[in-house]
Task: inverse folding
């Protein structure tokens, strides 16, 4: 069995009571216009740790030959602009972000660092799953469903899958080619 895991997604993938709990805890992505999405914020360490633990737990199950990341990314370039992202990004760059979100949008003075921050959040999950699974469940393969439009997807949704493959975090990728 190669276990297919949906990462950061809740719509149709999580019980209603858990979704309500996560909403109450402010763990969902927020669009630039303030709309709350149905995806967990990838910069929130609680959400990162949840994804890592689920992937590692799946790898430990009897008969599992591999684990597969799906939705291992931000939902879009228009997310996430929650207060947690603002605070965590400020720590990442070593200064508060005064003109939020304008400073991180296209043309903003912190745009490049913002894109780097987003890639780092997703990469942390992939790296930690890879390192833990390779140490604890040798031989378990690790794969990911990835956008075919590299390198744009690295900036648009934080999915730097070529870097993950080069670093050895993944054994193979499955480019999403639905059309």
Result:
């Amino acid at each position: 069995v190669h276990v297919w895991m949906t990462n950061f997604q809740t719509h149709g993938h999580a019980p209603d009571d858990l979704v309500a709990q996560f909403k109450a805890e402010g763990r969902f992505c927020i669009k630039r216009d303030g709309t709350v999405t149905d995806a967990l914020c990838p910069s929130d360490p609680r959400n990162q740790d949840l994804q890592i633990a689920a992937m590692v737990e799946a790898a430990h199950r009897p008969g599992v030959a591999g684990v597969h990341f799906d939705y291992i990314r931000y939902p879009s370039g228009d997310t996430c602009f929650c207060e947690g992202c603002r605070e965590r990004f400020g720590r990442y760059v070593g200064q508060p972000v005064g003109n939020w979100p304008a400073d991180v949008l296209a043309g903003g003075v912190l745009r490049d660092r913002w894109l780097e921050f987003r890639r780092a959040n997703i990469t942390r999950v992939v790296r930690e799953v890879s390192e833990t699974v390779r140490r604890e469940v040798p031989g378990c393969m690790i794969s990911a469903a990835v956008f075919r439009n590299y390198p744009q997807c690295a900036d648009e949704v934080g999915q730097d899958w070529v870097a993950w493959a080069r670093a050895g975090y993944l054994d193979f990728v499955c480019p999403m080619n639905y059309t």
